[in-house]
Design a protein that fits this description.
Blueprint: H1 2-19, E1 28-35, E2 41-51, E3 54-61, E4 64-68, E5 70-74, E6 77-81, E7 87-94, E8 97-104, E9 109-117, E10 135-141, E11 149-158, E12 161-168, E13 171-172, E14 176-181, E15 184-190, E16 195-203, E17 206-214, E18 217-225, E19 250-252, E20 258-260, E21 271-276, H2 281-296, E22 303-310, H3 315-329, E23 335-340, H4 345-351, E24 363-367, E25 373-378, H5 387-405
Parallel strand pairs: 21-22, 22-23
Antiparallel strand pairs: 1-2, 1-9, 2-3, 3-4, 5-6, 6-7, 7-8, 8-9, 10-11, 10-18, 11-12, 12-13, 12-14, 14-15, 15-16, 16-17, 17-18, 19-20, 21-24, 24-25
Length: 406
């Protein structure tokens, strides 16, 4: 009897063990909501699918699609490791829900989130609206504070749906997507590193509201219609200090070798210097552009070098972040580690003392064959800015070709 009893227990345990398969999670469209300041929810959509036994995801922001191929599932836990950036979404799931956290290691930032299967609308429309916001909006963020700065809202409205972005002197706020409902405008974007939420009331030709980006970031903003408004010229914000002998750098590559401006590989060639960071979405946009231009214009014999300023606390982790960026985007030009442990712009300027300041990541420096700085561009207007991005591409092409032909 005792032997039979142990045998029965063994069989029962074996059956239970074999039946404990990982829980299923629904494939299709999900709505995720990050919890930011004031208990506001920052929504974005993603699609989860399974291919050859492996899960894949696509995150959507207006026309932008971010593909996530590194997804881990263990029992009732799912982790989406976001591409390029040192960040992930991790949560406990049922077939139709996920509850968890978004963690950005580079920024040391955590946001709670929940996701619901089958929801396709980023924001719900509660009231019909006769408000039209298509056009250009002159914007001020951080009103009447030392951090006040200007922006340019550029929006297209189709019925109650709105897409567009805010440009600033240091870059754009990504592919924003949202709605007009009643007298309210709601816009959001999640790019795998940063999360942006804009909530505003519409009063005739005025937008007034708040910009959220985390559980401790909130800035008031006000915008007014102004179809002819332009931001300050990004080519005039950063410059060489008077009396400076020119631009110079000397920073290590991933092998520990110091690479300097005076090295033979840069002599007699136009050089594009990218001041950037692997954690920076606008830098990622610029890097993708530079990679494509570099590959398609090998005959121009130009040189490109990135100078990375990284959040990572150790040199090893900083180079790991740079390697991840290079591998994912296909960067063939060198990216040197200029600084790790901080991306403070004042400290960055101390590493490049010939500049009046480092105002933005990225900042791009154009140097001719004789080693003379010909132009410095602050910030980057990426694909979300539409016509501005197209005009930038045309201007970049023309300017670099001119430098190559001299």
């Amino acid at each position: 009897m005792i032997r039979y009893w142990f045998f029965a227990i063994f069989i029962t345990f074996s059956v239970l063990s074999c039946s404990e398969e990982p829980a299923a999670i629904s494939e299709g469209i999900w709505l995720a909501e990050l919890q930011v300041m004031d208990d506001e929810s920052l929504p974005f959509n993603f699609k989860l699918t399974k291919e050859n036994g492996d899960y894949r995801a696509e995150i959507y922001n207006a026309s932008e699609v971010i593909r996530v191929s590194d997804i881990a599932i263990s029992n009732d836990s799912i982790t989406l490791f976001l591409p390029v950036f040192e960040a992930y979404l991790k949560g406990v799931f049922t077939p139709n829900t996920i509850d968890g956290v978004f963690y950005n290691e580079s920024l040391d930032r955590t946001l709670n989130f929940k996701a619901t299967f089958g929801k396709t609308d980023r924001f719900s429309t509660n009231k019909q609206s006769n408000q039209l916001i298509s056009g250009v909006w002159e914007t001020r963020f951080g009103l009447n504070s030392p951090e006040e700065y200007v922006g340019k809202g550029i929006f297209v409205q189709n019925e109650d749906k709105v897409t567009g972005t805010f440009r600033t002197t240091t870059g754009d706020y990504r592919f924003l997507e949202g709605i007009v409902t009643g007298d309210s405008l709601k816009l959001s974007a999640f790019d795998g590193s940063h999360a942006y939420l804009f909530l505003a009331k519409i009063k005739d030709t005025i937008l007034e509201g708040f910009f959220y980006s985390s559980k401790d970031f909130k800035k008031p903003f006000i915008a007014k219609r102004n179809e002819v408004f332009e931001l300050p010229d990004e080519d005039e914000l950063t410059y060489l200090k008077p009396g400076s002998e020119g631009f110079d750098f000397s920073f290590p590559n991933e092998k520990g070798t110091l690479i300097s401006f005076s090295d033979q590989q840069f002599k007699g060639r136009p050089l594009v210097v990218q001041i950037m960071g692997s954690w920076c979405p606008n830098c990622l946009d610029e890097t993708k552009f530079l990679v494509e231009f570099y590959k398609q214009n090998a005959a121009l014999d130009i040189a490109i070098v990135g100078l990375a300023f990284e959040h990572a606390k150790t040199e090893e982790k900083a180079f790991a972040s740079i390697k991840k960026l290079k591998d994912r985007v296909g960067v063939e030009y060198p990216i040197l580690l200029a600084q790790y442990g901080s991306v403070d712009k004042q400290k960055a300027q101390e590493k490049l003392p010939m500049l009046n300041h480092v105002l933005s990541y990225p900042t791009t420096i154009f140097i001719d064959k004789q080693g003379k700085v010909r132009k410095i561009k602050t910030g980057f207007n990426g694909p979300a800015t539409g016509d501005k991005y197209l005009s930038f591409k045309s201007e970049f092409d023309a300017f670099v070709r001119m430098l190559a032909s001299e």
